[in-house]
Structures are given as structure tokens and as C-alpha cells.
Amino acid sequence: MTLGVILLVLFSVVLDVVGQLCFKMGLDRLPELDGGFRLKAFWGQVFNSPLLWCGLGSYAIEFFVWIEALSRAPLSLVFPIGALAYCGVVLAGKVVLGETVSRRRWLGTLVITAGVMLVAVSGA
């Protein structure tokens, strides 16, 4: 795998993490609706949330970065490396959002990272 492909996949992972953070922060900042859940009012709030639009923009850019990475390397190699987005989201949830991450979840994150490293090394 070339350095260019590695950088594309890592950029895709970063965009995925940024998108997830924007979605979470955007939804958390929506005001409470009076009278329970009202779909029309909810969607009006969603469409007026800059953070949710940033998340969508991040995903749109990620789509094109991902397509470029796929055009340069096998799916069976690139897709497992893309799983690092899961690890990035767990880390970002802890660092940026202050979420509590259990030992079991950290262990799972480490197992995923080890698996990604095995796939990356075997695909070289």
C-alpha cells in the first residue's frame, strides 16, 4: 500500500470522526420541544443547525476521499483500516465530549486497532 493510499484512508477516518462529533454536538444543542416529539418542528431545528450541516459536509467530502482510496487499493485492505474511525470516535467522545468510556470499551478499541494493524501489515 502506498503512502498516498494510507493518507487518503487516514483523512477519511478523520472526516468520519469529525462528522460524528458534529452530529452529536449539533443534536445535543437542539432546544427541547414543548409538548413532546413533533416531527415537523424537529426537522426544522435540524435543518437550522450549523453543526449538523458541518457533519453532512464532512461526510460529503469523506465520500469523495473514500472513493479515491478505493480506486487505488483493494477493498479488502482499505475497509478494515477504515475501522480506525471507530477507535477515533471512542477517543474523541472521551476527549472532546467528556464521555465515560469503560475499560471493556477501551479493550475493544485496542483489539480493533490491533486487527487493523494486522490487516495493514499483511497487505503491504
Individual helix count: 6
Distance between the termini: 5 Å
- Helix percent band: over 70%
Low-confidence stretches: none
Radius of gyration, Cα only, in angstroms?
17 Å
Beta-strand percentage range: under 5%
Shape: flat
Strand elements, count: 0
- Total of domains: 1
Largest sheet: none
Helical/strand content category: mainly alpha
Oligomer: single chain
Average of per-residue pLDDT values = 90
Order of helices and strands: HHHHHH
Membrane topology: Multi-pass membrane protein
Main location: membrane
Domain EamA: 49-120
Subcellular location: Cell membrane
Produce the secondary structure layout.
Elements (H helix, E strand, L loop, with lengths): L2 H26 L10 H9 L2 H23 L2 H8 L1 H12 L7 H20 L2
Membrane topology: Multi-pass membrane protein
GO biological process, one term: lipid A biosynthetic process
Subcellular location: Cell membrane
Q: Can you give a write-up of this model?
A:
The protein has one domain (3-122). The protein contains six helices and no strands. It has helices at residues 3-28, 39-47, 50-72, 75-82, 84-95, 103-122. It is flat, with a radius of gyration of 17 Å.
Question: What attributes characterize this protein structure?
Answer:
single chain, 124 residues, mainly alpha, 6 helices, 0% strand, flat, EmrE-like
Quick overview:
This is Permeases of the drug/metabolite transporter (DMT) superfamily. The chain crosses the membrane at residues 43-65, 77-97, 103-121. With 124 residues, the protein is mainly alpha-helical.
